[in-house]
């Protein structure tokens, strides 16, 4: 059996599963809450800042940035920050996609990302990352990303010794997802074969 034939069931599972597979928590991992905050928008009272894209929903692909209010960002997305003057984006996803493609809209080169899973032995219960708007020149919004702050279940800050664990979790997320899908594909394939064998015997 060739490598392609071995991997075919796994690839088919991934294609059929779609975004739902991305929400699976792989063995050895656990979910973690990650708060994304954007500060500095109050320095520009004549502008409205929004993050896009934050969701795959049909009518909620962007979110207005408000000081002190965490953004709700789906983990597969990396939204940028946009500055608007006297206009609000459409809610419809297709219309919003077209709206944010306008090259004259000021936007950040820095994008925001969410950590959704960590090693199951990591004591981190919450992560907070602050992005600060530091300037606006032409169509470029200057944004500085702060360090990830980590807190345990009691809300106490964690020591910096846990930073390495979270770094490995972030860098290894993609590989872990592929391996996890492979394991899931093999399990489902074996169950399917067992069910067919049982039906053949009956």
Explain what this protein looks like in three dimensions.
This protein has 202 residues and is of the alpha+beta class. The protein has one domain (26-178). Helices cover 32% and strands 24% of the residues. It contains five helices and ten strands. It has helices at 3-17, 19-22, 93-100, 163-171, 173-201, and strands at 29-31, 33-39, 48-52, 63-64, 80-84, 107-108, 117-119, 126-137, 140-145, 149-151. Strands 2, 6, 8, 9 and 10 form a five-stranded mixed beta sheet that branches. A three-stranded antiparallel beta sheet has the order 4-3-5, with no helix packed on it. Helix 1 packs across helix 5. The radius of gyration is 21 Å and the shape is flat. The mean pLDDT is 83.
Helix and strand composition category: alpha+beta
Number of strands: 10
Q: Radius of gyration in whole Å, from Cα?
A: 21 Å
Structural domain tally: 1
Which bin fits the share of residues in helices? 25-40%
Shape: flat
**Mean pLDDT value:** 83
Number of helices: 5
In what range is the share of β-strand residues?
15-25%
Major sheet, described briefly? 5 strands, mixed
Termini distance? 29 Å
Low-confidence sequence ranges: none
Q: What are the secondary-structure elements, in order, as H or E? A: HHEEEEEHEEEEEHH
